């Protein structure tokens, strides 16, 4: 071996030894990481909704599903990208995502041409807008808010444009089916995309429109009780007997209903498809719903048949159509597995109840867009429905990112950054931490649902 070659080998060893520790320990669950460095390719053509939020040394950016970085990690946090949410007259499409920097939340906008059938764009074509609290996107609109927590005011604005609702409301839900639920001083109704009140604010409680219907609770002046209204405000169903204690929106043509302290499901004719025998239920997604009876969780299909049972916890995958993740005509991933908890480990089952990925992760989140976030060391990786690793954070620490100087290393951790409202935890796109119900202030609580964190997988670890 020549002296020059020996010196190069020594230098390589020193560089690898001095690299910052980031999820560096071998993960016995995920196996060895791929042995090469990542690429930084900001000019690669990508479909924005395919990009993955990643964390590198405490800074967030985006990677594609090949594992290459396309948006430099420089933010305190970034959300998934939603859209296309807006169409212009110059054949441009835009996608948006929430981000956080220096304790403030805003949104970034990606632009691309509609001439490309795949909807792809260069990852470098994005701009950052706004600050303050941006709650969520849907149908080209943003729900945002301002003010102190005890008097927070909500409004709707077009992505990258002017607000459409005035005066600001005490509660707003995301735009769904061209209408958004709003609340002001304890009365609820709906506004259209121009901000005009199209369904009067006369209801005591409301949920968003899904499948053309909205669940509402009538005020005492209206006679009380739960029911469904259509998009014109016409009553399509009403529980005149007053037996329904709570009613949710339709998902998969079934709506969860609570009667005498137990949960079941109604079909579109408001008949009991699944009898109310469960203590807790989640919505139907992909033909299955997670349900609990006593201490045991499992899954049922649309006929009410229990296809899996005996877990410590179960979560449905997220329905992309509800989170504003997909534009008209875009394909939704057909494989989204259900998340289970058993003996302290998280795994995944398919719609028949068969275990596809053994419960071996100490932390995990439900499937979203065909991938799931699971722990890798103290950080997180993405896996597909076969359990194959799509993004592995250990490659960053061991081999770096070609074309990028990384931020100084910090102690890696599962996402749990501070929020503008003073709470902690990542504002994940799933609905588990935001109630689809107005008014925000729930009976028996002085907190608002978007400040009440429901149980999330992995929170206790």
Describe the structure.
With 461 residues, the chain is mostly beta strands. It has 2 helices and 37 strands. Strands 15-16-17-18-19-20-21 form a 7-stranded antiparallel beta sheet, with no helix packed on it. Strands 6, 7, 8, 9 and 11 form a 5-stranded antiparallel beta sheet that branches. Strand 35 and strand 36 (389-391) form a beta hairpin. The radius of gyration is 23 Å and the shape is globular.
What is the strand content? 35-45%
Give the fraction of residues assigned to helices.
Answer: under 10%
Q: Report how far apart the termini are.
A: 50 Å
Briefly note the structural class of the backbone: mainly beta
Shape: globular
Largest sheet: 7 strands, antiparallel
Number of strands: 37
Low-confidence stretches: 4-22, 325-330, 430-434, 442-455
**Measured on Cα atoms, how large is the radius of gyration?**
23 Å
Spatial strand arrangement across the major sheet: 15-16-17-18-19-20-21
Quickly list its features:
mainly beta, 7-stranded antiparallel beta sheet, 5% helix
Summarize the SSE layout with pairings.
Layout: H1 3-18, E1 38-39, E2 45-46, E3 52-56, E4 59-63, E5 69-75, E6 77-78, E7 82-87, E8 92-101, E9 104-113, E10 121-122, E11 126-129, E12 133-138, E13 141-146, E14 153-158, E15 171-172, E16 180-184, E17 187-191, E18 197-210, E19 213-218, E20 226-229, E21 235-238, E22 244-251, E23 254-259, E24 262-266, E25 272-278, E26 280-281, E27 288-293, E28 296-301, E29 306-311, E30 313-315, E31 338-342, E32 345-349, E33 355-361, E34 372-376, E35 379-383, E36 389-391, H2 394-399, E37 401-402
């Amino acid at each position: 071996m020549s002296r020059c070659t020996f010196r190069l080998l020594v230098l390589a060893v020193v560089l690898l030894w001095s690299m910052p520790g980031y999820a560096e320990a071998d993960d016995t669950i995920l196996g060895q990481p791929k042995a090469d460095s990542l690429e930084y390719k900001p000019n690669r053509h990508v479909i924005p909704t395919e990009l993955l939020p990643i964390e590198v040394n405490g800074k967030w950016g985006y990677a594609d599903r090949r594992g290459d970085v396309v948006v430099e990690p420089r933010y305190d946090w970034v959300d998934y990208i939603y859209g296309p949410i807006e169409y212009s007259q110059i054949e441009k499409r835009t996608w948006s995502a929430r981000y956080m920097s220096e304790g403030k939340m805003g949104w970034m906008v990606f632009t691309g041409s509609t001439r490309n059938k795949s909807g792809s764009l260069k990852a470098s074509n994005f701009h950052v807008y706004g600050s303050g609290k941006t709650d969520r996107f849907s149908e080209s609109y943003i729900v945002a808010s301002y003010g102190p927590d005890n008097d927070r005011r909500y409004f709707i604005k077009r992505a990258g444009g002017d607000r459409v609702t005035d005066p600001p409301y005490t509660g707003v839900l995301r735009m769904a089916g061209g209408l958004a639920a709003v609340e002001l001083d304890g009365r609820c109704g709906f506004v259209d995309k121009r901000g005009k009140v199209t369904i009067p604010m006369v209801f005591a409680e409301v949920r968003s429109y899904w499948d053309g219907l909205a669940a509402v609770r009538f005020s005492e002046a209206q006679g009380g009780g739960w029911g469904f209204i259509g998009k014109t405000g016409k009553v399509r169903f009403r529980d005149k007997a007053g037996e329904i204690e709570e009613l949710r929106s339709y998902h998969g043509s079934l709506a969860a209903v609570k009667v005498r302290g137990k949960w079941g499901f109604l079909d579109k004719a408001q008949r009991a498809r699944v009898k109310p025998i469960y203590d807790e239920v989640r919505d139907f997604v992909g033909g299955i719903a997670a349900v609990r009876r006593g201490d045991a969780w499992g899954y049922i299909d649309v006929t009410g048949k229990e296809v899996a049972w005996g877990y410590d916890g179960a979560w449905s995958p997220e329905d992309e159509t509800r989170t504003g993740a997909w534009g008209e005509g875009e394909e939704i991933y057909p494989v989204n597995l259900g998340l289970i908890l058993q003996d302290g480990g998280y795994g995944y089952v398919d719609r028949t109840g068969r275990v596809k990925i053994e419960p071996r992760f100490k932390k995990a989140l439900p499937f979203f867009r065909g991938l799931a976030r699971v722990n890798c060391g103290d950080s997180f990786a993405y896996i597909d429905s076969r359990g194959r690793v799509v993004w592995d954070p250990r490659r960053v620490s061991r081999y770096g990112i070609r074309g990028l100087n990384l931020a100084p290393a910090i102690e890696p951790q599962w996402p749990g950054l501070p929020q503008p409202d003073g709470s902690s935890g990542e504002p994940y796109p799933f609905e588990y931490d935001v109630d689809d119900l107005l008014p925000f202030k729930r009976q028996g609580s002085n907190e608002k649902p978007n400040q009440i964190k429901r149980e999330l997988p992995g929170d206790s670890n």
